[in-house]
Amino acid sequence: MIPVRPLRSEGVEQVLALVVASADVATAGGNTAGQAAGWNRRAFEDILEHSEQGSCLIAEQDDAEHDGVVTGFACFRVTATEAELLNLAVLPLVRRQGTGSRLLKHVLQEVARRGAEHIFLEARESNVAAWRLYERFGFQPVGRRRGFYTQPAGDAVLLRCDVRTPVRGGDTRMTGCKKSDWQQGGVCGNCGGGSVMVPDMMGMTDKSRGFELGVDRGMGGELPFYCVSVMKFSILSFATFGFYELFWFYKNWTLVKARSAPDIRPFWRALFSVLFCYSFANTVKSAAGSVNLYQKFNPVSIAALYALLIYLTRLPDPYWMVSLFSFVPLVPLVREIRTVHETIRPGFESAIGWGGWSYATLATGGTLTALAVMSTFAPPSRVLRQSEIPPSYQVTLVEAGVLEPNERIEFFYSAGLYSILEDGNLLTENRVVSYETLDGELYVYSSTYPEIQDFDVEYSESFFDDTVLFISMVSGEEFSLILSAEDGRDKEFVSELQSRLSASRSP
After folding, report:
1. Are 366 and 392 in the same domain?
2. CA pair distance 60, 507, nearest whole angstrom
3. More confident residue, 276 or 8
4. Residues recognised as catalytic
5. 123 domain residue, yes or no
6. For residue 66, what pLDDT band results from cuts at 50, 70 and 90?
7. How many Cα atoms are found within 13 Å in the side-chain-facing hemisphere of 375?
8. Which letter does DSSP use for residue 194 in this model?
9. Which of 4, 111, 385, 418 could form a Cys-Cys staple with 116, CB 3.0–4.6 A?
């Protein structure tokens, strides 16, 4: 057993010698000797003079050869319900022998006895040994102070541990106690000391609502979700018609399965994301609550809006494009996941950035999306029957001089990419018409049915070919029409032409 007691005035000399002997003593998190200058005789005497606010505990060697030698010290202060660990140092020769743990345990007991609810300290980010010690006692990162250390320069991570005053009848356990044989009543069954509550992961266990992820905080804590930036998530979701959302769901459900739900099937939960969106939103909410984050999103609203936007893919052109924004309801989850990760590992960038696959996905998906959007506003790819022709087409063709004001279109097809005025072929109640725009000028070719001498057809033989209809007029003039073979509408066009031509020749 390593004896620990409060520092008295006669022990200041030994503590000062320990300060000199410790090259990384300056703060609880471990710094270099350059910062140790602040811990001089006057600093320790001030602590002794104001013992109602702070205190300094020392650990002593208890063997026969070195009995009474100070091997470590820990200084702290308490203000109302908050405490701060100012300094913890251990003699280099006796490190890794439990002295630091013994001192820290007594500090936590003492600040709890004085009514503190939280204790804070700064730790150098690169000091792995200090991190392991503090994490073992329940300290968790809550902030960062950039440039806090000098000689050498470095950032400090602010750590916090929630402590509770022992209460009879409560289930409490001494922080850092590794044994399982502990008792109720605010006293540890192993060491007999006052207990300090260790914050536990709080989560949902009802699988219909969410899963408890067992989030571990600190540098070694495993991150529970697949994290990307809001910008990357939004761009790739939009560019891939929402397929990236399915990938994002799959990656997250895979991590949930590994941590707390071995029976779920990530692939099917991603594929039917509309059905399982609510469950995942609750899982994120549960994880956020476990690290004391206030959740501003409502899982019910997220799931409902996401399902609605997915359903809107059934709308006709161009209204279906609203569904391209199905990622929007998921943005609060993406943002909350990143916040949870930042809380678990302050300063660690957990968001997966842009890589080769991301850019390839963006290029491929973006091209397909652009083509889909363009095709929405482009003329249809098949011959339209009279009932399918938008009234706007009739207006446009009349204004361009292709049609007479009261002329009715029976069949229409345009091979134009952006506008029906680029190219068009139509059959009306009175005539057959073909037109095209060349160098900004519109050319119209037409013939009434009595003026047609004959016609010939070259039907499409492959998906990539169009049917070509050749019109020969009595006057000797000729022109052709281009028709899409999709759904056999070219044959309907030709059949209607044959019918009207026959009717025009009947006596």
Report:
1. no
2. 126
3. 276
4. 122, 134
5. yes
6. low
7. 11
8. B
9. 111
